[in-house]
Design brief:
Length: 756
Amino acid sequence: MARYPPLALAAIIASAASFGSDAFTARPSFGAPRSSAALRMSSYPTTASDILWTPSIKSGARDEQIGPITNYCEDLYSVVRRKTRTVECGPIKFGSEHPIVRQTMATTSTADVEGTIEQVMRCADKGFDLVRVTVQGKREANACAKIREGLFQKGYDIPLCADMHFQPVIAQLVADAVEKIRINPGNFADGRKDFEEKVYESEDDYAKEREYLMEAMLPLVEKCKSLNRAMRIGTNHGSLSSRVLSFYGDTPRGMVESAIEFADICRSQDYHNFVFSMKASNPLVMVQSYRLLAAEQYRLGWDYPLHLGVTEAGEGEDGRMKSAVGIGTLLADGLGDTVRVSLTEDPEFEYEPCNALADMAASRLATNPDAAARQAAVKTYVDTRDITAFDRRHGALPEPKEGDKVDVSGFLHKDGAVISAVTPDMLTKENIPYLYAGLGCKTAVGMPFKDVATSDSIFMREVPPTEDTDARTALRRLAEVSVGLIVPAEELEKDPLPNAVALMDLEEAIEKEGKLPVGAIRLAVTVHGTEDEDTILKIKDLAPSMILLKTDPSVSNLHSSRRLFEILKKENIDTAVIHHFTTDTDDSNLLALEMGTRVGALLTDGDGDGVLVEQTGSKTPFSLDFIRKTSFSLLQGCRMRNTKTEFVSCPSCGRTLFDLQETTAKIQESTGHLPGVTVAVMGCIVNGPGEMADADFGYVGTLPGKIDLYYGKEVVRKSVPEAEAVDSLVDLIKEYGMWKDKETEEEEEEAAVAAA
């Protein structure tokens, strides 16, 4: 599998073999006289004052000198990869002229040389192109040389990336052994994370502190340039420096400006073999940050590749969903040259979602004739989205009318609705209790009631006949607790259903002038994305309660949907839009990825008021309950509607100080029933304090067997024994008034009766 020429490979093996346990002891320390290689580069700037820094964004100098931001991707109306330079990383290459690179991160202790070699080999065998390893100090740096040598000896030339935090000197040392260095601008030069607020009287005061950034970075840049090593300037939302936080705030702009400063240092030395990343645990922040960075690169004339990832995404379907929302959205813009899906699972399990997202991206590119035809088939529109700010469109909720016998306002939800597809077999007498449970209803004496995560409406392609009294009674009871009953108008014309929402294609509704079948109380229309603008404008006169957006397969879902929202915005039509997503997959992980990519990309734009997932084909492999929960997970991942505890969970690495998967499972079991509460589970201190900014409570490993607990950014309980830490976390949540006991079945029934 080696991709190096045999003689070059032999030379590298010999070089790696020269590393011993004290291989790095003779290297210059931070601040020592620079090496001869550095002296050869002395024609380049050596102090911050000598660098031509990117003009200030705050003062307006960038706009004045270069002009405003104009675009963030190659083409707003088709999927074209952003043109980038090629960055070399051993035998692989990053950039628009090359396939998307799939990568992961080892979870072994890097000091465990044999264990790390075995895990890296498993990752390479799985299909990964690159593996990142943790490097905390000289011990791990020495180990990297042995790992590199061991892999070469076994015939594996998969590149290694050293993950560096806090250690400029060690970064220089390990560059001898690995093909790539990842540095975090938030803590590479600033030391350990803190939240001390700094006060800058002027931008000059802020700029003066660039000297120590230059001092920390310059030796590494020189080393990487001389060895042709790659670098990732990897900004993390959770670990912005206190300097950046004080000047720019906890914002995408701060993330971008932090990265640009470090890139300016690289560029000052004529070193360009680097990529950027803008990771965050919040997919909306992540997407906005990457888009803003891409826009700045276009403005500055830069062409550096992008590494995509949602940090601390979690595990299972939730982790895949959150990753798909962030990564899939950007890939659909043509942004991204390498992908890592960060899951709280063993690294081998990251390959399938990583590969699937890359394959989905390839299938959407306009270089694919079918994709190009779908994108070209979308009618002309003007894309006016502002990628420098996030603004969610809020569709109107159905309004009560005189004579209504049910509360229609509950048919949708202000923070995003979930509509569940219900089939006739779910309405048989013996299945009705399971229907209520699958919809997330509480029940009391057999009667359904809405709960925090109950489906807002149901969609039925067929209705049970009037003589089926059990099924009709079940539907009546759902309608009485404000669950909408959405049924195609032609079905209602055959057999009326009281208090139903009649669904028509938009053209049909126009033809019928919105006239409802007997028994129906509201209209919903289906839009396919192929309608002309005049047809869409008639929605205003029809005044439907909602639009179901189910795009025709002949047009690009992304672009035809954006066109619809642009028309609605231009004409001030505030009808709620529900994304009607159909699927025939039987793979739950793939379902999460498809929903996150296809629907999440639009919700991340702020466009959409909910989701309806309908299984198609002869088989329906997923239960009503699973589809409902997955739909709510999508809304929560898009930061719309919280129906359960939000977990920010790191993916584990060699720094992790406890069994992350086991601990996360225990914390989820104890605290997973708290909607609106966010708990961060961090294996070590590197991103821990920063990610507390995105969480209400934090559980962070600090020493072996010891846990620090956070409330927001503040450590409130230190060095808690690991065996007591989960219980202590529960006590902390109670102390801050955010705890709610899990309801027993009897308590749920009592609560439902009281609410009736």
